[in-house]
Amino acid sequence: MARRFPQHLIRPVTSLDGTWDFAFLGEADTDQVDPTGIDFSDVMAVPGCYDATPKYAGRRGLAAYRTKVRTSAGLQRLVFDGVQHWCRVYWDGELIREHAGGFTRFFAETESAGGDAEIVVLADNRFDERSPLHMEHFDWYAYGGISRSVELHRLEPLHIDGLKIDTLSVAERRVQVRIDYTGAAPGSAALGIECDGRVVVSEPVDLDASGSITRTLEIPWLAAWSPEAPRLSTLTVTLGVDDMSERFGLREVATANGRITVNGEPVRLLGVNRHEAHPQFGHAQPEALLVNDVQQLQDLGANFVRGSHYPLDPLFLDLCDEAGIMVWCESIGWQYPVEHLTEPAFVEAQLAHIGEMVAASQNHPSIILWGILNECPSWSEEGHPVYATLLGRLRELDPHRPVTYAAINAHDDKCFDLVDVVSANTYPGWYFGDVPGVPAEIDRISARVDALGFADKPLIISEIGAGAVPGWNDSHGSLWTEDYQAELLTTVVDHIMDGQDRISGLAIWVLGDFKTTELRRMALTRPRGVNDKGIVDEYRRPKQAFRAVRERFRRKG
Ligand code: ADA
């Protein structure tokens, strides 16, 4: 995978990134497709999104990818970092995995006798009941394809499935390490744990049916991770003859007295929302682009980014860990209707997706907040139990990070009792009111949240912004001009930085422009078919607002 450190030095791993055989099957009925009989007449980059390429731009339907591998006999694990947005995986014609969700890592496993094998992936970007997490009305274009890296791992019968490192105490440099494994129980194996190349544990362990080993360790040379000094450590586990490494940072996140704290210090989050989209690559984010985005966040003076509205690329998170940029990482969602939100199949799919999100991202110290369901019916009575279930699962999986969601209407929300941090999206001066009214609306939200009884919870303005057609200005400072957007955002930033103490965080909507759904109703309010509330355009060229916000973030930060 494109990461900033190797995860396996012993386990044989082959990157399958490259150019795969490809066929666009369009409206084909997936159940009728014989994976061994496909006419692969084309090629496609992996990672990549087929419907972002000139030949298949905008096409919805089934697509087939094929590659060949040579393996030694034994258990094989294909690791997919993300396939959009529903897929089936075949190994030599045999179905070994089905997956929905797009933005999360999953495995496909099989036993092989060794030798040459053919892998076929059927990827589908249509909106139907197999993909309950995706809906066509979302305000972003849902690209299809194998959008993140793919690897082949040769597994030993006893192998590590996951490694979770939690800070228990920064002051005492104490962490808890959980190793999830499969195989060889009952029995025993040699366990080794090294941190930054120094041995911490070397002992035999008994393996049992629980499939996990937990150790609490005090590691005296660990230094705290903070946004100002983002120090990282690498922990390597060997179990039998398998290994896995993870990078982590010693840090505690909490909430106290209406503030988010990192290592006990209150932090003020200043940043932007960010979509993983590009006109030429869709959701596949080349390394150069991820480096670009992080550089741009740093240039802006931002210390915070909200991953809107789905789990983020693992390399982007690595880069945020290194840059000390704090991250809100959320599950996929955008204004699901109540009937959809309360469907048992949808809730099950969200739970699986949340599990995958946490498993893939939990060791990144940059992630200081987990979120769910952007602008969904947290305003409804029916929504409350669903929010309780999903946020409850997040807390169960990770009791060490605060949880939140972005409310569409903070004045009338019914689920703030369930979160650690209250977050409100609002568009004064854009969808309602005018620029001079912006500070008052922010104050009204703060007052309302307090009046609802949540004055002790930190409050984030999780979206606020205005559209600006890149390069467009007129002498009136009209809507859609860069002037108007810059004026609105400077009003927001000045008020939050100088006039308001209640707000703990600001995520401007949005870092970069991005293509939205082709649905007419939405496209008609999105010039160029693009959500152009970016402070840089879709090719990351700064608009006037970028410079105006930068000046303030830098001065005030
Ligand atoms: C909402 C939503 C964003 C985007 C934004 C907008 O707040 O959460 O995804 O659609 O509105 O541009 O209108």
Automatic annotation (TrEMBL):
<comment type="similarity">
    <text>Belongs to the glycosyl hydrolase 2 family.</text>
</comment>
<dbReference type="GO" id="GO:0019391">
    <property type="term" value="P:glucuronoside catabolic process"/>
</dbReference>
<dbReference type="GO" id="GO:0004566">
    <property type="term" value="F:beta-glucuronidase activity"/>
</dbReference>
<dbReference type="InterPro" id="IPR017853">
    <property type="entry name" value="GH"/>
</dbReference>
<dbReference type="InterPro" id="IPR008979">
    <property type="entry name" value="Galactose-bd-like_sf"/>
</dbReference>
<dbReference type="Pfam" id="PF02836">
    <property type="entry name" value="Glyco_hydro_2_C"/>
</dbReference>
<dbReference type="InterPro" id="IPR006101">
    <property type="entry name" value="Glyco_hydro_2"/>
</dbReference>
<dbReference type="GO" id="GO:0030246">
    <property type="term" value="F:carbohydrate binding"/>
</dbReference>
<feature type="domain" description="Glycoside hydrolase family 2 catalytic">
    <location>
        <begin position="254"/>
        <end position="554"/>
    </location>
</feature>
<dbReference type="InterPro" id="IPR036156">
    <property type="entry name" value="Beta-gal/glucu_dom_sf"/>
</dbReference>
<protein>
    <submittedName>
        <fullName>Beta-glucuronidase</fullName>
    </submittedName>
</protein>
<dbReference type="InterPro" id="IPR006103">
    <property type="entry name" value="Glyco_hydro_2_cat"/>
</dbReference>
<dbReference type="GO" id="GO:0005975">
    <property type="term" value="P:carbohydrate metabolic process"/>
</dbReference>
